[in-house]
Amino acid sequence: MVQHDQGQIEQQIELPFVESVRISFQSLMIRFWRSIITTAGITLGIAFLVSVWTNSEIGEAMKSSGRTDQIASFEDEESTGGISIKDRWLILMSLIVCVVGIANSMLMAVTERFREIGTMKCLGALDRFVVRLFLLESGFQGLAGAIVGALIGCIGSILLNLKDFGLDVFFYFPFFPAVGDDGAVRYGVLLIILGGCVLGMILAVIGAAFPAWRAAKLPPAEAMRTEV
Amino acid sequence: MADIVVRAEEVIKEYRMGSNVVKALNGVNLEIVRGEYISLMGPSGSGKSTLFNMIGALDHPTGGSIYIDRQNMSQLSMSQIAWFRCHRVGYIFQNYNLLYVMTALENVTLPMIFAGLSVSERNDKGAELLKMVGLGDRTHHRPDELSGGQCQRVAIARALANDPTIILADEPTANLDMTTGREIINLIKELNVRQKVTVISATHDAKMLDVSDRVVNIRDGMIERIRNRDEIEIEIGKVGGH
Ligand SMILES: Nc1ncnc2c1ncn2[C@@H]1O[C@H](COP(=O)(O)OP(=O)(O)OP(=O)(O)O)[C@@H](O)[C@H]1O
Ligand SMILES: [Mg+2]
Q1: What pLDDT is stored for residue B109 in this prediction?
Q2: What is the atom index within ligand 1 of the atom nearest the CA of B204?
């Protein structure tokens, strides 16, 4: 009794990395405005964090340079060395706003594409491929958004301080990490900018990878049912 | 001897919603012969789409087994299932499920990317498939620039991308008008005859009856009856006689 088989079921191949990069880049460019809005979410979060933190650094630098006379807010604070309690609180809050904002931005962007994920799986995409696609997309967005955000935050903060301290801001500008006279460690604006870029990218990638991974693991029938 | 391409054995599918359990499929047994055009009919909620998902490996049955080419689907690895979806099945959906960010050609060639074809191979084959479904002049249009019928043609071309043995169609004409629906049915039937591909189609559409080799009626997650070509012809004849 011979029944003709159509041959064995094979293992699905891995796509070359460049192909994934190409598809993710194309996907970002075609939904250009949607990508810009998601990226703007990252930019805002990082700009907020970097500006608050830069502001605090500049304040500290001005304080140790003896230029605190015009600023009332410094009067009532006993300096325990390093960043004041109020500034720490502001930085912590802006960090939380940044994390939640970026996570929300990425979650939205991935959730509205569940159907697309289900469809790609119908056509033979491996779960790994779907996750990699979103890692790449969010990595691009995270990096671009965070760089722009860090620069906006830093420049904004400098402009605000120019109003108070004039050109002294540049003269005492705390660009590099340093140890102050009181022995407190200053991160410096350079590290804050770099940190903001790295943080933005990591948050964007994690924020996208988690929902993308969940969607990729769903059976396609379920992923395609999801309506946003 | 009949060459069975799909065999469903006591397939059960339950959906759990909190403490409620919906039995969408309640012990389905079905054998589908290679090359036949089979229609699944039944009222809304009877389990057509659920059976479609089980046969196409788009979801796992709660109980029972699906065999395709005598291979038990539940024994395949994730990677083999991806390969199976990519090479063996072409899916056609009611709402087309095209990727709206991609052109017609890119939609059709996406499964070929997953199959590892080179750029020139897939562009040639994609253009050829689009020409075959009558969209030779629309290759670089995106789905939002195409009509419903044209979108469904792109979906049909995409379903054929890797020369599948089975085409699964879930209500492919439900969103189309009478004439366009008829054209789409004829196109699928043509592929069935010309390329000997097995067609399994869920439908409400009586137009499908004419082209089906067998019609499976489903009710409450069970097969109610199966009619052959000759029985269908008699019934269509009767309807026409009134
Ligand atoms: N993901 C799900 N979660 C819960 N219940 C579901 C799910 N999918 C289907 N069902 C239920 O299973 C039953 C069968 O649904 P199915 O979609 O297979 O019907 P159908 O025959 O395709 O109907 P239609 O003609 O309306 O498309 C229905 O009662 C439906 O409510
Ligand atoms: Mg249905």
Answers
A1: 96
A2: 25
Residues of chain B with pLDDT under 50: 241-242
Supply the pLDDT for residue A83: 66
- Map out the domains of chain A as residue ranges: 18-66+80-220
Q: Select from 1.10.150.20, 3.40.50.410, 3.40.50.300, 3.90.1200.10 the CATH code of B35-57+77-241.
A: 3.40.50.300
Taking only the tens place, the pLDDT of each residue in B139-178 is 999 999 999 999 999 999 999 999 999 999 999 998 888 8
Q: What are the residues whose beta carbons fall under 8 Å from the beta carbon of B56, sequence distance 6 or more?
A: A122, B85, B89, B91, B166, B168
How far, in Å, are B35, B126, B133, B211, B239 from residue B207 at the CA level? 20, 29, 20, 8, 13
This model of the complex carries an ipTM of 0.90
CA-nearest residue to B53 within chain A is A221
Report yes or no on whether pTM surpasses 0.90.
Answer: no
Of A55-69, A84-98, B9-23, the range with the highest mean pLDDT is B9-23
Residue of B nearest to A12 (CA): B83
Asked if A123 lies within 8 A of B80 by C-beta distance, the reply is no
The Cα–Cα gap between A130 and A18 comes to 14
CB contact under 8 A, A119 and B78: no
CB contact at 8 A, A14 and A126:
yes
Distance A36 CA to ligand 1 centre (A): 37
User: Which of B58, B72, B95, B103 to mutate: most A Cβ within 10 Å?
Assistant: B58
